Amino acid sequence: MKLLGIGSRINHTEYGKGVVTNVSSKEYWVTFIDGGLETIAIDSEFDVIEAAENEVDTVSFYDVEQSLLSILKKWNGLGEPVAIADKWKGGNMKLEPGQAGVAGKDVPIDIFFHKIVMLRDRLRVMEQKINASKLEEIEKVELQQYITRIYGSLTTFNVLFKLQNDYFVGEKTK
After folding, report:
1. What is the pLDDT of residues 105-150, one digit of tens each?
2. I need a surface site. Which of 12, 76, 82, 160 has the fewest CB within 10 A?
3. How large is the average pLDDT for residues 63-85?
4. Reduced to 3 DSSP states, what percent helix, strand and coil does the chain have, rounded to the nearest 5?
């Protein structure tokens, strides 16, 4: 069995997708998109997405960390880290239906906030793709106006953000 090198991408049966960041004689150190750093046995169950050569050259931890962050952002469409306002950390959102006999739902605010941030980041990617497309300028402007209106609809959630520069900003009224 050939060892994977640092930078190899795998899909583990339990932890999901990740990148090999260190290799020993018995295990891989893998940083997983959803689970963080884990050590897994070299013979554990996983699929190789992309193998990197097991080179002897040394690479600094900083270089590996920067490469890993770049890969994870590319794979997951992640933007810069966004902080939730301190008052909401660990909070819970209770959804109570107006119809009798229907169960309500509790949603941790941290999870809800993460989904709002992912939505915002995906809108930003869509904007970039529209601007880089070969569409006519008038079509780009029309699509951009829709996205701006979507941002405006999401301004209600600005209360969750710690920093004002992370807020959703919609169309300004004249």
Report:
1. 999 999 999 899 888 888 888 888 888 889 999 999 999 899 989 9
2. 76
3. 71
4. 40, 20, 40
Distance CA 168, CA 15 (A): 33
Kindly give the interhelix angle for 109-132 and 137-153, rounded to the nearest 10 degrees: 170
Sorted by sequence, the CB contacts under 8 Å of residue 103 that are 6+ apart come out as 97
What does the alpha-carbon distance between residue 8 and residue 115 come to, in Å, rounded to a whole number? Answer: 28
**What is the identity of the amino acid at 13?**
T
Q: Note the pLDDT of residue 1.
A: 59
Local structure of 95: helix, strand or coil? strand
CB atoms within 10 A of CB 135: 13
Q: What Cα–Cα distance (Å) separates residue 102 from each residue in 60, 93, 112, 158? A: 56, 17, 21, 30
Sign of CA dihedral 19, 77, 73, 125: positive
Judge residue 4's burial from the number of C-beta atoms within 10 Å of its C-beta, 0-12 exposed, 13-18 middle, 19 or more buried. Answer: buried
H-helix or E-strand containing 16? strand 16-23
Computed on alpha carbons and rounded to an integer, the radius of gyration of the chain in Å comes to: 21
pLDDT at position 172 over 80 = no
- What is residue 85's DSSP assignment? P
In terms of pTM, does the model score above 0.70?
Answer: no
